Amino acid sequence: MTNIGAGGAAPSLIKASLSRTGKWAGSVAFISGAVGDVLNPLAPFAAYIALVAAIAAAIIAIAIVLRLVLAAKALPALLFATSAAAVAGGVYAVQQETNSQNGVIAGLVPAIAQLQQSMGIVSEKVAKIEQTVTQTQKTVEEVKKSTDTVVQKTDQIASTQQQQTQQGAETQKTVEAVKQTTDTLAAGQQQQQVQAEKLQATTEQIAASIDTIAKGFAQLAAQGGAIAEPKRPDEFYHNARVYELSGDMLNARRSYLAFAGFDVDAIDPYTRFATLLRVQDGKAGAREVFGQLADKGKALSIKLVHILQFEDAQRLDKLNAFIAANPDYAPAYFLKAQEFSEDRLGSQTLADKRNEAQALTRFISYEKDGGLLKYFVDQTQLADWLDRSRSRLAALGDVLDPARFAPSLTPMRSNQGWSMTISLPEPATAISWRLGTSGPFTDTGFLAMKDQTTGKPMANPSFELPDSTAATTIGIKYLDIRGRETGPFDIRFDPDAALQQGDKQILDQFWTSWIAFDSGGNHGLVYFTQMLSYRCAIREVRYSLNGPALDKSLEIPPCDKKDPYAIPYDAKGYFKVADSVKSMSVQVTYTDGTKSPVREYKRQ
Fold first, then answer.
1. For the purposes of burial, counting CB atoms within 10 Å of the CB of 115, is it exposed (0-12), middle (13-18) or buried (19 or more)?
2. Does the predicted model carry a pTM greater than 0.85?
3. Cis ω for the linkage preceding 488 (within 30 of 0)
């Protein structure tokens, strides 16, 4: 590589380069500066050219010094770059000095200014294009945003459609499941219908079977004697009765068990068998045998008779549960009635009588259209049950009428207050009362004597109230002989009406004391003192002498409710009559509007 700094070679090399490239390099540099000046309205091209050329000249010079390139080859480029930097830099300096926005040449040459104007039009167009491009960019961005929104909405719609599709699938599954369930229910209903028809047919067969057994049993009973080789249920039942009546309890027991093996749903064979078992094995033994039969068989009659082998309260609870589960099993009502009967209890309360009557009434209600025949093999047993039911209902009378067996109160007024006497429809072991419809009850206590029915102290049937008691409701309740509470019963108490009713009752009962002629040796006087004492029940007293004309009236003072039986001091309870008066007719009109019969009193 040639050394640019050795001896005199460098100057000669520079001169050679200037001679070869100086002319065209200077021309090109001048043209570049001129073009940059002319284009100055668009941008400071002169400054750009000067900067680029200076950088290029510096790079070339460094490369020559570092011998990275041959000086001979690089000097032309260095000269060109230096020239361009010098010319363009000079032009830019003049522009800055003259503050010429359109360039130096345009200020000197008008044609160049016109050229710049043309270039300005282009520039405006370019600006418009740029503005259009900018607006287009904004539009594109808005479109992009709209597109994004549309995409988002599309995604949402797609998601919704997917959910709807899933819901539709689930709905379809649900519809199919419902259809399947409906089909299953329909099949189940059809199966239930078939089963019901079979059950109805079975019931009819059982009824027909029991009817056949009953007829066979009746025929065998008419013939008498045991069947040597029994095979049918009626034959075994017949033999059981024959052996039982003859005292052969072992063979009777075997025959009853053989009959039970047919699982016939008839009540009378099992009640008779249970009676035999209780005699032989006691109630516990009968309960054990029928427990085993009830576990093996399906006949409700066996289960019912098994219940009857339990003790008292437990038996009644099980019987009620059986009736609740089988409300139309008629024999259960007759057997329930026996739990409340006088034969079973010895003495009955009103509640016992009502329970017995209700059960017997229900039992007899099934007699219509032969509804009881299907439960009995021996029709004489059914006839016995019906006769006993009718007889007991006749004896019980109208016990089911609640109005006929409610407690009552009899108020009795004195000058000190009210004495209330309670009348109960049955013996009671305790009685209590209260004023009003709420609040605690007060016991009446006991009398100093025993109740012959219960053997316990007799409950006091009365209590006292002050004379200031206003109209109110009095509640009454009591315990029956089994300790069961009955009531409360609300009874209306009106003091005014009670006073009038009480006085009227006394006047009607003791009417012979209304009038007294010549009492106490007072000849010529007629006394009516009793009517004055009970005047609170009297509205008017009409009378007549020696005939029924009733043309006169007695003067009766008004009622004093605070002291009703005291006769006012100024009241005159008598009047004079002549010796010619031989009789007196009297009629009382009561405060309730009723009238007494015309009473005649003869003078002695």
1. middle
2. no
3. yes
